[in-house]
Design brief:
Largest sheet of chain A: 6 strands, mixed
Helix content of chain B: under 10%
Radius of gyration of chain B: 13 Å
Number of strands of chain A: 11
Strand content of chain A: over 45%
Structural class of chain A: mainly beta
Shape of chain A: globular
Number of helices of chain B: 0
Shape of chain B: globular
Strand content of chain B: over 45%
Distance between the termini of chain B: 36 Å
Order of helices and strands of chain A: EEEEEEEEEEE
Distance between the termini of chain A: 37 Å
Number of strands of chain B: 11
Structural class of chain B: mainly beta
Order of helices and strands of chain B: EEEEEEEEEEE
Oligomer: heterodimer
Helix content of chain A: under 10%
Chain lengths: ~110, ~110
């Protein structure tokens, strides 16, 4: 039930672009994106609620497809500070119980 | 706002000892979550509270784990007795208008 992220890892040069995907076998209520640097806590980036939604800043943005089963995070003109592990996450309900699940994670390394 | 405050930042304890992790949430955030992160299992939700009431503790691994939220400004996660496999980083997080905010975490090492 855990969303699968792809790629598992990516190495970029500064200024290059990257796309990180998060795929679920079932429709998600919403999708949240986080970045975690080594040894630090995850930092919330953004939330997408609606199918077909796109949001974000100029250099970091995300989309949520119409079926709400896939989300993509777009990193444009990457900077060294973008390095870290990116997670998608979503609340789900199982037998009427709320749970929160994280994706498998994508390690991103930006090189100078 | 000081954010979500966790203490201690690091804890090293011997197997069998009781460990208490503490969390001060952001004022006004009605939801509080306890997570555990390890290399093997990634981030796992242990328990969450809404308005100080435990809603779902199905992620708590064993009866050795317990969590309380006596008021809106304080929560604890207790492990008794601790075991080496409990070694992990434990995060407290709260949910509010700005999304999720994680505390800095407590790195627990049980030897």
């Amino acid at each position: 039930q855990q969303p699968v992220q792809s790629p598992q890892a990516v190495i970029l040069r500064e200024g290059e672009d990257a796309v990180i995907n998060c795929s679920s076998s079932k429709a998600l209520y919403s999708v949240h994106w986080y970045r975690q640097k080594h040894g630090e806590a995850p930092v919330f980036l953004m939330i997408l609620l609606k199918g077909g939604e796109q949001k974000g800043h100029e250099k970091i943005s995300a989309s949520f497809n119409e079926k709400k089963q896939q989300s993509s995070l777009y990193l444009t003109a990457s900077q060294l500070s973008y390095s870290g592990t990116y997670f998608c996450g979503s609340p789900i309900t199982t037998s009427g119980t709320y749970k929160y699940i994280f994706g498998t994670g994508t390690r991103l390394k930006v090189l100078a | 706002d000081a954010g979500v405050i966790q203490s201690p930042r690091h804890e090293v304890t011997e197997m069998g000892q009781e460990v208490t992790l503490r969390c001060k949430p952001i004022s006004g955030h009605d939801y509080l979550f306890w997570y555990r992160q390890t290399m093997m299992r990634g981030l796992e939700l242990l328990i969450y509270f809404n308005n100080n009431v435990p809603i779902d503790d199905s992620g708590m691994p064993e009866d050795r784990f317990s969590a309380k939220m006596p008021n809106a400004s304080f929560s604890t996660l207790k492990i008794q007795p601790s075991e080496p496999r409990d070694s992990a980083v434990y995060f407290c997080a709260t949910w509010g208008a700005g999304g999720y905010t994680f505390g800095s975490g407590t790195r627990l090492t049980v030897v």
